Amino acid sequence: MIAKHGFGNASMREIAKTSGLSVPLMYKYIKDKDDILHLITTMCMQDIIDFFDTGELFTGPADQNLEKAVDRYIDYIGENRRYINLVYSETRSMSAENRARVFDMEREFMGRWKGILDKGVEQKVFRPMNTELMANYLYFLCNVWSLRHWSIGKFPESEIRTV
């Protein structure tokens, strides 16, 4: 509902109806639309953080770990494009408190990318670099698959992965 009509145009009544819940039941668990958006965002971020925490990405050489991370994240984005676009387009609509929480989760996620890059620099697989900055670049470049899908969706996913 929010993804289709936008955060500002979706009423709690419409959200409840779409969710198959009564308005009173919905208000039992959340305060307002801001909470719904925060819950959606938190769910998306936690899903991908959980993958990075499985340890799968830290078992081999850093270049292979980075390739696995990019592949998995692009898979995630492909499966969750609507959520990713919602989060990017509506984060500004969140309360300052919830927006700060989302940014904290994003910084936490950046730490996973940074860890892979730090390991690569340490192993001399990657040249010395500002790994925090590069982690942000990688994260955003992967998100382009969702944010600019209208433009690059014509390319095969295999090509997106190798750029």
From TrEMBL:
Domain of life: Bacteria
DNA-binding annotation, residue ranges on this chain: 11-30
Any GO MF annotation of the entry: DNA binding
Domain HTH tetR-type, residue spans: 1-48
InterPro entries (alphabetical): Homeodomain-like_sf, HTH-type_TetR-like_transc_reg, HTH_TetR, KstR2_TetR_C, Tet_transcr_reg_TetR-rel_C_sf
Keyword annotations: DNA-binding
PANTHER family: HTH-TYPE TRANSCRIPTIONAL REPRESSOR SCO4008, TRANSCRIPTIONAL REPRESSOR
Protein name: Bacterial regulatory proteins, tetR family
